[in-house]
Design goal:
Pfam families: Robl_LC7 (PF03259)
Shape: globular
Number of strands: 7
Protein name: Dynein regulation protein LC7
Distance between the termini: 13 Å
Number of helices: 3
Radius of gyration: 14 Å
CATH architecture: 2-Layer Sandwich
InterPro entries: Mycobact_SerProt_Inhib_Rv3364c (IPR053141), Roadblock/LAMTOR2_dom (IPR004942)
Structural class: alpha+beta
CATH superfamily: Dynein light chain 2a, cytoplasmic
Helix content: 40-55%
CATH class: Alpha Beta
CATH topology: Beta-Lactamase
Length: 135
């Protein structure tokens, strides 16, 4: 697990280096636990991960109302005064969240996130938890 987390750290850094306006990146499980992060404060990353669990659930509920949808959330973008928030499905039971400042090219972040997920999606998975245990 430590080796996987170290591998994920350089991948997240590569995403942040490619888009300098990114302030924080969080990889989280579907139940809102932080798996990895880059930039920002660890406590903020934990709060973001917890909030993202609710957001991805809400997005899936909305997707279920679209007749041609498969019911899965793929990308949520929220423009906030001062910046942008992105949440993307990143693998089975895992999500990628990004906070960026207001000067970011909003489309570039989504494209880079997609590229990252396609390239390394197998590393961005989180097995389901049973009785509080992974697997």
């Amino acid at each position: 697990m430590i080796q996987q987390r170290a591998n994920m750290d350089w991948m997240l850094k590569e995403l942040a280096d490619g888009v300098p306006q990114i302030q924080q990146i969080v990889v989280l499980s579907a139940d809102g636990l932080r798996i990895a992060r880059h930039g920002g404060d660890p406590d903020v990353a934990d709060r973001l991960a917890a909030a993202c669990a609710g957001l991805q659930s809400l997005a899936a509920a909305v997707a279920a109302e679209i007749p041609s949808s498969d019911g899965r959330m793929r990308l949520v973008v929220i423009e906030i005064g001062g910046g942008f928030f992105y949440l993307m499905e990143a693998g089975a039971g895992a999500y990628l969240a990004v906070l960026a400042d207001e000067t970011v090219d909003a489309g570039l972040v989504g494209a880079r996130m997609r590229d990252m997920v396609v390239r390394i999606g197998a590393h961005l998975t989180s097995p389901p938890r049973h009785d509080g245990q992974a697997g």
